[in-house]
Specification:
Length: 98
């Protein structure tokens, strides 16, 4: 294998490892991580400290309930996020509203 291919493979591996690390919440409960992982299967999510940012506009702070969601977008986005979060909480065996 030549040096250029080896460097490209290394760079790709580092980027993949960084992306995987960004999906792990720091200082969050296993339930919060499970919600993040479940939401991330169908929506764009990222950690903002201990809060989950869903669809780039909806912030879900601890305790990760639909009532606690805030949105910088439309009311429709907020309502959709609340429905999705309630469904994922129910699927995970948690009460829909906490």
């Amino acid at each position: 294998m030549d040096d250029a291919r080896a460097a490209a493979r290394l760079e790709a591996a580092v980027k993949a490892a960084e992306a995987a690390a960004a999906r792990v919440g720091v200082g969050v409960s296993p339930q919060a991580q499970a919600l993040f992982d479940a939401l991330g299967r169908t929506h764009k999510v990222e950690w903002r400290e201990q809060a989950i940012l869903l669809m780039e506009t909806v912030l879900i702070p601890p305790p990760y309930t639909p009532a606690g969601c805030t949105c910088s977008g439309s009311a429709l986005e907020l309502e959709r996020a609340r429905v999705v979060l309630a469904a994922e909480r129910t699927r995970a065996g948690m009460p829909a509203e906490g």
